[in-house]
Design brief:
about 20% helix
Amino acid sequence: MKRLRCSGKRFRMRLWMRGMKMPLRFGISSSSFIPPEVKMDGNKKFNFSMVSDWLGGGGQFSEIILSSRIRINRNLKNRKFVSWSSNQELQELAENLLEVISIINYFKNSYQVQLGINKEPAHDLFPERFICNYKYINEEIPRGIVIGENEDLSILINNYDHLNIQAYQSGLNLDDLFLLISKVQDEFEANLNFSYSQ
């Protein structure tokens, strides 16, 4: 894991390297009882049996680097941090953020699911795709996951911060990822009031 600061904003970068001593799974989970499709809010289904573009093995230095990810963590101004908020406050925040996300251009055809109330076995597929970790889906805290149509963008709501925006691409492609996630953040900033330290 490597961190960098750019224009006063915190970014987290992760590069999955070929040959790393960790299991990398592609496509459907190895657990046979988990269906390859997850029903999302609005009765849309997300098909985890398809290999996403960012797992496709293309891009620069793809013979060494499987994929690149940049993540921006943001908190809203005049809102309690997630760890200080009640479940009722987090539920209200999640609903408000999902409403804003629905008007963001990059998430017009996104897949949304609310977590924290009814845990379903199919939710275990989100960690399998490196969208979140198992703790995020197992805790009884009002949360949400939004996945872009091509799975190159995803959002976690009420993780350690109010909003985690993640962008993925195959191979080593940090410059394009930085431009993409910056544009996404700009759209959010037009609709939300982020908190910044002075």
